[in-house]
Amino acid sequence: MTTHRIRVGIDVGGTFTDAVAVDAATLELLGQVKVPTSHHHEDGVAHGIVEALDRLLEQTGNAPEDVAFLAHGTTQATNALLEGDVATVGLIGIGTGPGAALTRRLAAFRKLELTPGKHLPLAYAHVGDPDDAAEVGRAVDEVVREGAEVLVASQPFSVDRPEGEEAVLAAASGRGLPMTAAHQITSLYGLQKRTRTAVVNAAILPRMLATADLVDASITKAGVTAPLMVMRCDGGVMSLDEMRRRPLLTVLSGPAAGVAGALMQERISEGLFLETGGTSTDISVVRRGKVAVRHATILGKTSYLSALDVRTVGVGGGSMVRIDGGKVTAVGPRSAHIAGLPYACYATADELRDAKLATVSPMADDPADYAVLDAAGGRFAITMTCAANALGRVPEGDFARCDQDVAKAALAPLAAALGVDVATAAAQVLDAGTEQVKTVVDAMISDYRLDKDTAVLVGGGGGAASVTPHLAAVSGYEGRIARHNEVISPIGVALALVREQIERIIPGAGQEQILAVRAEAEQAVIAQGAAADGVEVEVTVDPQTNTVRAVATGATELRTQDRSHRADDEERLRAAAASLKADPADVRVLAGTPSHTVYGTEVHRRFRATRHPVRVVDADGVVRLHAPDARVETTTVGSAAQVLASLVDESTSYGDGGVRAPALRLLIGSRIADLSGVLDPQPLLALARSELRARAADEPVVAVVEART
After folding, report:
1. Is the separation of the CB atoms in 540 and 549 below 8 Å?
2. pLDDT (tens digit per residue) in 330-356
3. What band does 563 get if pLDDT is binned at 50, 70 and 90?
4. Which H or E run includes 107?
5. Torsion over CA: 382, 383, 384, 386 (sign)
6. CA torsion through residues 319, 322, 328, 329, sign
7. Which of 637, 624, 693 is nearest to 270 (CA)?
């Protein structure tokens, strides 16, 4: 048996359950297995999870007690909503007078459409006085008679006054039904949206509770002592207890696992992650080392569920080519999988003998312009993967790699019909497919104002080589395929950090209130198992909506990556110079900590002020922060309060839009504390002080300050 401690990530997909083992110290991939997802087993998906874990431990030679971290991602909640397989929700509205009118309107949620012709099963009852146990009892009896399997209590302004919802839950507690209150799901104002989010959460609650109990019991029986974590839709993981409270956080977590893998393994600091399967490509943004998150749309309505901003394009490795009039007109949306056809490039040369080009309708209502080959071995689909292999875009050892000569033979009949050579035909196919992806990529780069000079395209998923390399070549962006791209999702699950987001509406929030929200987020991830010393908290204050948001992340253990390689001074300089688009001779070291080095240069512009772009590079030679024009100062923890106060004062702008403190980031120890989300100078400085507490007075601190225009 090996003595390696391992991190295990398990991704439960619709067809297969993938599991990986990652060395807890080096983060090296040690093993990977694939088993069929056990939807129809008496223990459900829990059986497949345990089977995958058993095979993985056998493959790597580890014992259950070697597992330092275990997490799984699941599509179960998403599928439940897509398939309409949900519980009947008993919604108890609370209020008198005008408040009663508002809550009675919530009964309309029974019109929410889950699938065509199938609506959310919901029973509504109303109580005027939540402290009247008899009245609450009658309301609960009413919804139970209508089939309610789970209860939700909702009252206007419960974010500020939750006592009414809590009283209803207390009075109904003896019924043996799962229960939740709207204020427990989100602390944001908006009765309709808050209750809708709580109701959808409740609809999947019974099913997810049953699965959680089975998985927990199965993992414990297998001898694993590490607490089981579950993938969230915002790229982090949460404890099983937290999942039991808010299963809705697992909805849309599939794409989140992939981008988490790219963020942690590939160390993207600015760019896009493109996860390509057989039929589609999910595109998500990483900006300044963080994933882009927004409130998700569920069942056609906006919610208070914070999820990755993922945009899906119907082009994947199996997307079929469409032709008309001697031209490639489009690629997809139908794939070889939907058409029930094998990829032509994976056939043998003998099977492709006497191949002739034909066009078909993959589905009954599809146009008959999808290109196929009728050959000695049967009918084959011409796909994006075929074109990528024919053009040499698929690297050696890639999951999608095939014999290039066979791929060229598969494209030859199409090339003849187009009147071009094979390479040109393959390029036309990839052009047509990646054009759709490029439109979305360009839009996301613009929406998030990514730095085009440093943005990188990283491809993941089994079909990555069919999209990302060609897109990079035609767009001019740097592009690469992630290591172990075919299992990037379970790797993301294995490497993900515990995450919690706290949002509060606080008009005119002062520094004490902001610090309180920060502390709440920090304590939430610690309660879920994150090591206190490694927790990072990003705070954002939106003066337009009065929203204070704190996002805390942390590892369940302090991971000291004992990597065999650390970049030397020359490698880090080259990385900084490449990112700055500057000659290394013109780049200088501005500051540093044991974990990070700050590089800068000058950009002289005619008739305009000189800019001072900055790059922060970590010990692995990865650019972790880029600022287009910044000031860099080094101080110590003991002197930081005075130095930072002076820096913030000098860089704060005043105008018609109000006071705008600079974007401040602090390099402390192994961390980059991002305080750029706060515009008010006093709360900003208070947050800076909170980041420095409990540190030695002589510890170095580097401040990177960007004045806002």
Report:
1. yes
2. 998 888 988 899 999 999 999 999 999
3. very low
4. none
5. negative
6. negative
7. 624
- Helix (H), strand (E) at residue 642: helix 637-651
> What is the chain's length?
709
The percentage of the chain sitting over the pLDDT mark of 70, rounded to a whole number, equals 98
Spell out the long-range contacts of 485-488 with Cβ–Cβ below 8 A and sequence spacing 24 or more: 485/398, 485/399, 485/459, 485/460, 485/461, 486/399, 486/461, 486/462, 487/18, 487/20, 487/29, 487/32, 488/258, 488/261, 488/262, 488/265, 488/275, 488/460, 488/461
The SS3 of residue 570 is helix
Q: How many CA atoms lie within 13 Å of 546's alpha carbon, on the beta-carbon side?
A: 10
By the 10 Å C-beta count (0-12 exposed, 13-18 middle, 19+ buried), 544 is classed as exposed
Place of tokens 């459409």: 113
Query: Which tens digits make up the pLDDT trace of 351-392?
Result: 999 999 999 998 888 899 999 999 999 999 999 999 999 999
Residue 334's contacts (CB-CB under 8 Å, 6 or more residues apart) are 319, 320, 362, 363, 366, 370
Provide DSSP, 132-158.
-HHHHHHHHHHHHHTT-SEEEEE-TTT
- The pLDDT of residue 592 is 93
Buried b (16+ CB within 10 A) or exposed e, 331-348: bbbbbbbbbebbbbbbbe
